[in-house]
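We emphasize that the prediction below concerns an isolated chain of 309 residues; any contacts that depend on oligomerization or on bound cofactors are therefore not represented. The input was used exactly as deposited, without trimming of termini.
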Amino acid sequence: MNHILVIGACGQLGAELTVQLRQIYGAENVIAADKREPVAALQDGIFEVLDVMDINRVKEVLKKYQITEVYHLVALLSATAEASPRFAWELNMNSLVNLLDLAKEGHFKRLYWPSSIAVFGPNTPKVNTPQQTFMDPNTIYGISKLAGERWCDYYFEKHHVDVRSLRYPGLIGYKSLPGGGTTDYAVDIYHKAKAMQDFSCFLKENTRLPMMYMDDAVRATIDIMNAPAEQITIRSSYNISAMSFTPKEIYEEIKKRYPNFKISYAPDFRQGIAESWSESIDDSTAQRDWGWKPEFDLPKMTEVILENL
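Result of the prediction step, given as a token string:
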């Protein structure tokens, strides 16, 4: 029986992932943990207030629930991290290395840690970015994610830690508000449209970025953790892809349902971050190794979000 700990369970991805894991494994076997009090979606199961940087407290929770798998989702995201680079580095790096050490020491068996398209940089091929490519991130978030990928691969090679990872594109869902990422405009825009408010976008209208609907991200995360270890050939982090679009394209899709919806553009510092990232991702390695395939494109995602908001 899997006993699962989700650290960072109150975040945009964490809440939806925890709910899905509880449906699969039973609420009693999936422990949600975060520094803040539980969000409404997590109140039907066990919740621990936990600071991931407190390694003794982490050990206590691992032992208390006999945890076998950890999903480590805590991070300071791209835009937020630029405001506090030293803190972002310490949080993003030290928390990961601490958990890799705990896995190495046998406190649990398998670790999931998310990477990001932020590992790519200005000189990375932008169209169909390959799995193995040149990476020169120029944000503290991207730098920490690239370093984290190398730590994961190192602990697998040197200590046989069963660590698995995905390079998420921008994640879009309707159940949580944006969390400080450069792709968050594609979450906020739906909320504004539904509220009959005009939307001011912090990116230029033709800035194309890889995106993914939250249901696909949750499914990909669970699928890679369930894949047989011998099928996992990438221990740094897998490219995964679903769709790529611009602010103008998502606006036009929403406008089909809300004809009076208006958008304006006021690019800020996040424009520079977005321009350093890829426009589309080659995820053929994930397709080959563990059968990855997205289910949502822009029209289907838009329909579902606007129906449910």
